[in-house]
Amino acid sequence: MADFKTASADAPAGVKLMNWVDNRFPATKLFKEHMSEYYAPKNFNILYMFGALSLFVLVIQIVTGIFLVMHYKPDAALAFASVEYIMRDVPWGWLIRYMHSTGASAFFVMVYLHMYRGLIYGSYRKPRELVWLFGCAIFLALMAEAFMGYLLPWGQMSYWGAQVIVNLFAAVPFIGPDLALLIRGDYVVGDATLNRFFSFHVIAVPLVLLGLVVAHIIALHEVGSNNPDGVEIKAKKDAKGIPLDGIPFHPYYSVHDIFGIGCFLLVFCAIIFFGPELGGYFLEYNNFIPADPLKTPAHIAPVWYFTPFYSMLRATNDGMVNVLCVIAGLAGLVSLLSVKGRARIAIAVGVIVGIALLKTFDAKFWGVVVMGGAVIILFLLPWLDNSPVKSIRYRPTWHKVMYGIFVVFFAVLGYLGIQPPSDIGTLIAQIGTLFYFGFFLLMPWWSTIGTFKQVPDRVTFSAH
Question: Dihedral of the CA atoms 279, 280, 282, 288 (nearest 10)?
């Protein structure tokens, strides 16, 4: 039997209660390990709020989702009406629904900013590769959760958006039609699809998402947080083993994050009460019309947080495939000139097979590959970046320009994905897609070029 700690007879009731709990569950131990005795770098800036804000929005989504499920009917004949019932007849139902719909967009805003901070400060570099992989898995699960949840209101854009995306899986060679049928549960998007998506949105994916969030936090606290300087604070400790450049997460950064949550709630509430549709970006106007399988909307587009990847999908046409063939041929030629021996034969065969595959399968299939590859390539980032320094602060100026262009192209791709297709829009999206993949695939080469600044031994910090 484990040794039990005994509280003093004259100790306050709260201390006795906490002692009773600690003898049966390591509450105080966990609090110390992950809060009061978890030492974070003292030079965190405002960009380090977005991880906590993402977790806060996740809580909002779970709580509001529970209340929505109490009144929602996962039936193709009743789903739209049940959402209207929530909005019009359930006390405060409109608020819960708008919190959930606005929270979906807020979640992606926070996650995109959180990932951007990790990108510019090198938070994916050794020893935080697993932290980054868990984060990318969270992003992937979040996309699945949002896509399935988007169908549930059973409005026009929900229905036709799901129809278009699910049909994309039919483009996969050999197994495509069966895969699309498996996802839909029927030959068309209908009641079976709605029930499948509802069960995954409410039960399966949230469980996976919560598990990944816990794993992400545990992995982070095991190796320690990165900082804007990219300096490992565990390298310099005092006699007690406390990092010289570290401060306890609680109360310093817990208060820091509470302030961030307060600022976030001001904006969040302003959107909910004054513009929950946000001009059709958060809630499309077509989604206030019941789903009609016989009437196709003039322009079908996903929600804004999917549109950068949707733009890449639309940009991959026959012309784009021909460009990819030329790029593959040029890459093979450069490789052939730089190597000797049997490796040249392997490269030549690889290039020929690659070009043959590009020309064999339909451009629609390669669009699906490009769209999926745009997310999967993020998982490889820890092994693509060969820069001698982590943080953007100590990289050459032109590296900062590269990251800036990357953000601009990503935003432009997002905007183009909302707009109806056009020749000039398709051309810009193709350039943006090539830059997106070139940014990552050429990173092992360009990340090492230039004059890098000297990284300090300890973090640079000024009190504020």
Answer: 130
DSSP 452: P
What b/e readout covers 45-61, taking b as 16+ CB neighbours within 10 angstroms? Answer: eeebbbbbbbbbbbebb
Q: Say whether pTM exceeds 0.85.
A: yes
Helices (H) and strands (E) in the chain, counts: 19, 2
Q: Rounded to 5, what percent of the chain is helix, strand, coil?
A: 70, 0, 30
> Token pair of 259, please?
């302030």
Contacts of residue 224, Cβ cutoff 8 Å, sequence gap at least 6:
39, 40, 232, 233, 234
d(CA 84, CA 369): 38
List residues bridging with 248 in a β-sheet: 39
Q: How far apart are CA 417 and CA 410, in angstroms?
A: 11
Q: Is 102 helix (H, G, I), strand (E, B) or coil?
A: helix
For 437-440, which contacts have Cβ atoms below 8 Å and span 24 or more sequence positions?
Answer: 437/370, 437/373, 437/374, 437/377, 439/402, 439/406, 440/377, 440/378, 440/380, 440/381, 440/384
Spell out the per-residue pLDDT of the chain, length 464, in tens: 456 777 777 888 888 899 889 888 999 999 999 999 999 999 999 999 999 999 999 999 999 999 999 999 999 999 999 999 999 999 999 999 999 999 999 999 999 999 999 999 999 999 999 999 999 999 999 999 999 999 999 999 999 988 888 888 888 888 889 999 999 988 889 999 999 999 999 999 999 999 999 999 999 999 999 999 999 998 888 888 899 899 999 999 999 999 999 999 999 999 999 999 998 889 988 899 999 988 988 888 889 999 999 999 999 999 999 998 888 888 888 777 777 767 777 777 888 888 888 888 888 889 999 999 999 999 999 999 999 999 999 999 999 999 999 999 999 999 999 999 899 999 999 999 999 999 999 999 999 999 999 999 888 877 65
